Amino acid sequence: MRVAFSAVPDSDLPSVDELLNIAVNALGGSERQGQITMVHAVQKAIEAEEHLAVQAGTGTGKSLAYLVPSIRHAMGSEAPVVISTATIALQRQLVDRDLPRLAETLGKDLPHEPTFAILKGRRNYLCRYKATAGWPEEDEQDQLFDPREVSATGRMVQRIQEWAEETETGDRDELVPGVSEQAWRQFSVSAQECLGATRCPSGAECFAELARARAGEVDVVVTNHALLAIDAMGDLPVLPEHEVVVVDEAHELVDRVTSVVTAELSDTSVMLAVRRVGRLIEQPLADQLMEAGEDLKALLAAAPAGRIDELPEVLGLTLALVRDSAWRCLTALGPRNADKDDPDKAGQRKAAFTALDEVHDTAVRMLEAYGHASEADRAEVVWLDEGSDRRPPVLRVAPLTVSGMLRDRLFGNRTVVLTSATLALGGTFDGLAGQWGLSDSKGWQGIDVGSPFDHPRSGILYVAKHLPQPGRDGLPQQYLDEITELIEAAGGRTLGLFSSMRAAKAATEALRDKLDVPLLCQGDDSTMLLVKQFAEDEPTCLFGTLSLWQGVDVPGPSLRLVIIDRVPFPRPDDPLTSARQRHVAAKGGNGFMAVAANHAALLLAQGTGRLLRSQNDKGVIAVLDPRLATARYSSFLLGSLPPFWRTTDPAIPRAALKRLSTES
């Protein structure tokens, strides 16, 4: 509960229309109908305590549309409003640009200037105690010994130590340039490893606790989907008490929550537990766990990668051995609050409990994933990720759906507003509502407030219906020829979105010497620098994969053509999506449409959304996969996209691109 400010009666506050008008005028914007509609919808949802899904196209000004009613509500409440985002870029935009400008603008007309804070997971803050105490060493035995890496890590550790003496927030993002995960782990703890503010000698000055305290005193708390999930799913609160959550980039919510509740088990995690517990219990017990880890290592090294539908007897026995050995070690450690008066020993015990709990509980989850009467009764899927020279094979377990968790833990006791440019798949919110757990709830609605862009006049959606269907053997020569002709017509200025990094690299290698314009490929340098170079040099083309489908914002003449090589269905051998598809089918649904087609529709909508980023932008989206025009599911996919002018005639986009290239 916030103590810095008291709640203000609603009648004493300006209306959302007045506040929006003040903000738009002060920030040099113009009135947008979609923004006004969204402001009213968000306010109505908050007042009625009903959930709301808002699709707001690029250029709507959706950040302002949810911030204005959120700030107004916070003024009349004793709890902050939580804004959750999927990407660091949007967090930084909100905290560094949008909220400071908005707070200064509205402060004169509100009881006080709106306050805000960013809150991250505990791992993102330096632990003062770990930085100064004898904490168990982070031993990376699974990595190959490389003197250059050891030396680089040592320099990073020294930099962190120097920074620790001067930082006021302990926030890892303050470290520029950044440091490796291996170096940072020596100065941070997870929530499970933390001793707790009351028991830790550094508790009174803990950076993570201070950040949480600040968050409890402000009007708006900015966080990410992962921390939102941890707060909702966990037994102990991480975020301050709140009644309203705004989930921006809501199309990524399910994937981020799934990542949080996915667990993994490998010989590395078992050996870490052995090292952590080794000096705290009798050696024979630790040796039993080590032997179980060695058995697991040998088994995983010989097993084929992929989904494990039925539990092999040898894997079941090995998981049971790991589970039972970890439990015996946990029992031997004794009470969890022992050594509470000795912080050093308490820290070592907490680290041991954390590592053992993870190993034991994950083995239990994996064993309990089997033995169900039918596929429809199965709740989780287990699969093996193959290793590499630097990483051992890893067993993973994940839920087949997170809808029940979200329904009960996120939507159950607060008002949630979900927004993105892409939420209505196939023209309806039903697909994502089902994944969120809202489909069987009466207390929600979905609205599409449109976009200020004139899509039919500004962009052409060209589907290369004459090309062959994409195969598994790389890009056909016809695709490479089509890409070449389109880029030549556009004079470069092309963003190539490919379904895999292999396809992006193959196209780059095949076309780099054929084209008269610079061609960059994701992986040549950091993605941020590549996008910057692409934006600044008009003829340049940029090819890449997944992060470019959603992470590129290049307004102006540097981007006139977006090429998509194929409909971005998940890989057929992807363990989680294939298991989810089969699970839906076992329950009587259409697994392909509910999982694979929804996945493809979301990515297509995000990818096509790269073209128009400002009112004056124009160009062509070229989808080379003819299935977007011919397959039975094409109407669903097309119904998920902005209303561009559509054609399958190859001459039309080429002529349009040539006209645009002469205008630039």
TrEMBL record:
A GO term for molecular function: hydrolase activity, acting on acid anhydrides, in phosphorus-containing anhydrides
PROSITE patterns named among the record's database cross-references: HELICASE_ATP_BIND_2
Keywords: ATP-binding, Helicase, Hydrolase, Nucleotide-binding
Family matches, as Gene3D superfamilies: P-loop containing nucleotide triphosphate hydrolases (3.40.50.300)
Reaction catalysis annotation: ATP + H2O = ADP + phosphate + H(+)
GO biological process: nucleobase-containing compound metabolic process
Record-annotated Helicase ATP-binding domain positions: 21-293
Xref: InterPro entries: ATP-dep_Helicase_C (IPR006555), DEAD/DEAH_box_helicase_dom (IPR011545), DinG/Rad3-like (IPR045028), Helic_SF1/SF2_ATP-bd_DinG/Rad3 (IPR014013), Helicase_ATP-bd (IPR014001), P-loop_NTPase (IPR027417)
Cofactor: [4Fe-4S] cluster
Pfam families on file: DEAD, Helicase_C_2
Protein family (similarity comment): Belongs to the helicase family. DinG subfamily.
PANTHER family given in the database record: DNA REPAIR DEAD HELICASE RAD3/XP-D SUBFAMILY MEMBER, REGULATOR OF TELOMERE ELONGATION HELICASE 1
Protein name: ATP-dependent helicase DinG
Annotated organism of origin: Nonomuraea jiangxiensis
